[in-house]
Amino acid sequence: MASFETTSSNAEGEARRGKLQTPHGTIETPAFFPVVNFIGGPSVESGGIWSRLRNHLFGDSEFQGAMFQAMSFLDFNISPDNLDWWREKPLHDHFNDHNPVNDGDDPDSFTKPLFVDSGGFKLLNSDTFGDSPEEGGDNNDWSIYTNPESILDLQLDYGADIIATLDYPIPPNLKDEEKTQRMEDSIDSAIRCLELLEEEENPPAVYVAIHGHDYETINWYVGTFLDRAEHVNKSFEGFAVGSLVPYRTNVETLVDIVQGAKDAIPNDR
Fold this sequence. Notes:
Layout: E1 3-9, E2 16-22, E3 25-29, H1 49-58, E4 66-69, H2 80-87, H3 91-94, E5 114-117, H4 120-124, H5 148-157, E6 162-164, H6 176-197, E7 205-210, H7 215-228, E8 238-241, H8 251-263
Parallel strand pairs: 4-5, 5-6, 6-7, 7-8
Antiparallel strand pairs: 1-2, 2-3
Helix pairs in contact: 6-7, 7-8
């Protein structure tokens, strides 16, 4: 189980520090999670420069945990059978006392918390992973589909301590109709993910993905999600704000987006 608690706040502003407890240790927030591509090929030793970066990070004293994008295996030439091998046990177990890439290079084990994103961006840009047969789609060799059930299974197989719900990013200049549909689909996905986790004995911490390029849009998004989530018994730790890369240099816009999300949260929550 995972839980978050605030340890100190800035009396004159909104800054705060806290601790996120996970099965693989405590995260002191705010924290930087480097994005690590764990599946760099068909084996733990493969991955070229990635394999050396992984080993270096695992042994760093400042390393608190890693973020992994669930569909990043597509960046490497691995087969569905290779992925099945990776899914047989959690990623922590794959990188526990694993063999060195080169002789004399003794790698540290991966023992820190793992945050697994959903891979929604890659799913939107792939023709392989559509609807499941039950939803009117076709089978694919990976048995992975663009739905909350399939992506949550993948995240759980990886052994995630923290997950972000399946979402559909909204790039700038997207038509309003398509943007609204993606946001509604992301809300549906988040609700379904929380419903599925109600049955898990030791569920990961959940961050609900939210989107919006301005105050009003993300305020609507968060308010709509919270209204619809009232019947769900599974709690979540917070929100993960997506679709921000195009706005990373516009601080004023970023502040408005975050403020819009915060203002949609009732005081009792």
